[in-house]
Amino acid sequence: MVANKIIMDLYDGNNAFELIKEVITPALERIGSKWADGDIALSQEYMASRISEDIVDSILPPESSTRRDVPVIGLTTLGDEHMLGKRILSAFLKASGFKILDYGDMKAELVARNIKNDGVDVIIVSVLMLNLVSEVRELRSVFDREGIDTKILVGGAPFLFDHDLWKEVGADSMASDAMESFEQINSLMGIVQ
């Protein structure tokens, strides 16, 4: 695999996070822009993210101390059955060095219990169907009741059509794609790039 060879030629055993920040993440940004511009297919963006994720896992194992220094990110769909967008986002964020906990599709109460136990810093909620936006409001309500300070970042079609909807449901931020999610996580956590 050409991408793996390029990274391994640059890898000196100690510069994993620098390679992620200076090579892999910018490459994924360009690929995301090409998809947004209609120059490549969604499947190509997904495959690039998966290849990058595999490379990152080879130079920065899940138990790496470097990964312990970055926020823990959770992903869920809160009742929505679509998974492709979440898979792309997960691969992109893993390739950017984040620790990702995928909670699949579960209700707000269970998500809250899991993220509290797992020490999640930011939960990303992907919503495709408008009728499930209310589940984000429910998640915020559970967080407030339980004193959970995990940030809620939302994305998906309803939030793309109404750019203020994320505020109405009590989310902390909204992202329109994987790259913007990366930026919003950094912003929510006060990480300077």
Topology overview:
Elements lengths: L1 H9 L5 H21 L5 H18 L5 H4 L3 E5 L7 H12 L3 E4 L5 H11 L3 E5 L6 H14 L4 E5 L1 H5 L3 H4 L4 E2 L3 H11 L5
Parallel strand pairs: 1-2, 1-3, 3-4, 4-5
Mind explaining what this structure looks like?
The relative contact order is 0.13. This protein has ten helices and five strands, in the order ααααβαβαβαβααβα. It is an alpha/beta fold and 193 residues long. Strands 2-1-3-4-5 form a five-stranded parallel sheet, with helices on both faces. The chain has a single domain, classed as 3-Layer(aba) Sandwich (Rossmann fold). It has helices at 2-10, 16-36, 42-59, 65-68, 84-95, 108-118, 133-146, 157-161, 165-168, 178-188, and strands at 72-76, 99-102, 122-126, 151-155, 173-174.
Descriptive terms for the model:
five-stranded parallel β-sheet, Rossmann fold, alpha/beta, 193 residues, single chain, globular
